[in-house]
Amino acid sequence: MLGAGALAGALASVIAVGTTILGWFDGGSENPEGRVERLVVDVAVVPLTYRQWRVREGVPIAGVRASQLRAKGLLVEYDMMTSGYDDDDELPVELTVYDLDTGENKRYEADPVRVRSGDSCGCSDWVPVTSLKHRNTVTVRVYPPGPIRGEPLKQESGQSTIRQ
Fold first, then answer.
1. Spatial separation of the C-alpha atoms in residues 1 and 37, rounded to whole Å
2. 64: Cβ–Cβ under 8 A, 6 or more apart, which residues?
3. What is the fold, at CATH topology level, of the domain defined by 35-159?
4. 40-59: pLDDT as tens digits
5. DSSP code of 7?
6. Quick one: DSSP state of residue 8?
């Protein structure tokens, strides 16, 4: 009986090592064939308050603090073309706002993008800015399904040109 247990343990070890080695070669990706083919970013030159953006998106404003609704920001629109993803895969998105006048930058986790294999996405989000008079660059980073980690699948930037 002990011999059968030892043989089973040895076999399990060999399988575990083989699976680990195969994982090294496939890059560890959950969906290695999924790709972001194209990402184009446009930072709209029309400033929006958080309230205006919520109304534009059809999101209720009830329960949101008045000071938060008055926050100034920019509309960030981006088009994305994907391939190789399963229906309803969600790609996490991160937005980074670079204030070119002060040198400050802030990162925001946006809502994930739900894609369909081969479909394009006309997506948008809103980001707060310290001043609408400043020049800002916004970088959009799209990551593989799951939590944000590692290198993005694709990243692109757009620059606002608001001067008031």
1. 56
2. 50, 51, 54
3. Immunoglobulin-like (2.60.40)
4. 998 876 788 999 999 999 99
5. H
6. H
